Amino acid sequence: MNLRNKKLLARRTFNIGKRRIVFFSSRLDEIKEAITKQDMRDLQKDGAILVKEIKGRKKVKKRVGKKSPGNIRKKVNKRKEEYVIMTRKLRKYVAELKKQGKLSREEVIDIRKKIRNKFFKSKANLKNYIGELEK
Asked: How deeply is 63 buried, as exposed, middle or buried, from its count of CB atoms within 10 A (0-12, 13-18, 19+)?
């Protein structure tokens, strides 16, 4: 008797793996007749289908750590995104100034190094720095 489809139905009904489902051989005829999830639930209630317990430590619930202010960290990806956006914005601005002839090649190289090292907090900060260079 092939009960693979019945086991599949039971898996979907109880949201568990196939190894945890046991059909009692004395009641296979009833199980064979089951075609809906409700039938499977009824058979489990009657005792024709047994759902095994989880083995090992998986059944022990993990302790959820409390999120106090000291435990909250900034997300790395968010920091990186902000860095990339700022860097691109500043480099584009520096390239534009170089194209206009307001900055020399050496100044551009120096400024780009500082951009890479997060020397500037914003575009306004960069404009201030360039204004001080021109004085």
From this structure: exposed
